[in-house]
Fold this sequence. Notes:
This protein is an alpha+beta fold. It is 30% helix and 29% strand. The chain has one domain: 2-Layer Sandwich (Tetrahydropterin Synthase, Chain A), CATH 3.30.479. A 5-stranded mixed sheet has the order 3-1-2-4-5.
Amino acid sequence: xxxxxxxxxxNAAHRVFVEGWSDEKNSxxxxxxxxxxxxxxxxxxxxxxxxxxxxxxxxxxxxxxxSKIIRExxxxxxxxxxxxxxxxxxxxxxxxxxNIAKAIxxxxxxxxxxxKAVLHSIRLHETENNSVEYFGEFA
Length: 139
Ligand code: NI
């Protein structure tokens, strides 16, 4: 079993908050990420796919194909966008790093299966020091 990883980057705005709470209470719970006037992050996304190398190509998945899937299903939808307001797969979801990683996993997993490979994990860095990794529901 081989793991292969593709990195992509995107910039996006968000606000993590609970509707109905005061700005003060949101600020206490979520800090700078609850700024009522939005703010942005330079996200770094690592998509890891696993499988056995194809006998002919030697590839687990063609990285050009993987990059295209990530670009079309994720990057084109989130880059320079507001995650609270503009991204179809984040509708009604609190845009924490955890939830963004989960949503991305479920967005692209079926397309990777079509390539006869398995999505192993989504690792998403919100800052240099803070990141999450999601392995799917049954990991
Ligand atoms: Ni934030």
